[in-house]
Amino acid sequence: MIDEEEEDVEKLLKRKISWKSVFKGLLGLILLGGAFTLITISRQGGEINITYFMFGIVLLCIASSVMVPVPKKKNELRHTVSIHKCAKCGNKRVHDYKEGDFVHKDSGIMCEECAGNYKIFEVYSIKLKARKKTKTT
Ligand SMILES: [Zn+2]
């Protein structure tokens, strides 16, 4: 269930990023074209027109900064959870990750269904949207 959610979020993010990068690429090309046009114009008529030339250089800088992929900001919300699974009946529950949690660790929680012991079955971090989706019990 959580796996599916994560997949969807990731797909969404990928689509967003690719759309953005296409847009950035186009913008960069337009700026680049403008920059070269300005530099070409600035050199017409023997003397270099400093104003046009400078504008061209500035545009060139903007274009390169737009086109170079910016490393994604690490402000995405991540949440680490531990999946506990009953060793006897396979009941699963999700808990917030606690320091020292590791897979196969005896979690010390007793199963409500069969009084078996919960063991940590999986530990992983999930991406979160603005609001918390993770259910913790
Ligand atoms: Zn159980």
Calculate the mean pLDDT score and round it.
82
- Can you count the helices? 2
What does the overall shape look like?
rod-shaped
Ligands present: zinc ion
Number of domains: 2
Q: Helicity, in percent?
A: 40-55%
Taken in chain order, the helices and strands follow as: HHEEEE
Look at the helices and sheets and give the structural class: alpha+beta
Query: β content, as a range?
Result: 15-25%
Q: State the major sheet.
A: 4 strands, antiparallel
User: What is the spatial order of strands in the main beta sheet?
Assistant: 2-1-4-3
Q: What is the CA-CA span between the terminal residues?
A: 15 Å
Task: Give a description of the structure.
- The chain has a 4-stranded antiparallel β-sheet with strand order 2-1-4-3.
- The chain has 2 domains: 2-67, no CATH class; 77-128.
- The protein is built from 2 helices and 4 strands; from the N terminus they run ααββββ.
- It is an alpha+beta fold and 137 residues long.
- It starts with a helix and ends in a 9-residue tail after the last strand.
- It binds zinc ion (ZN).
- Zinc ion (ZN) binds at residues 86, 88-89, 91, 111, 113-114, 116.
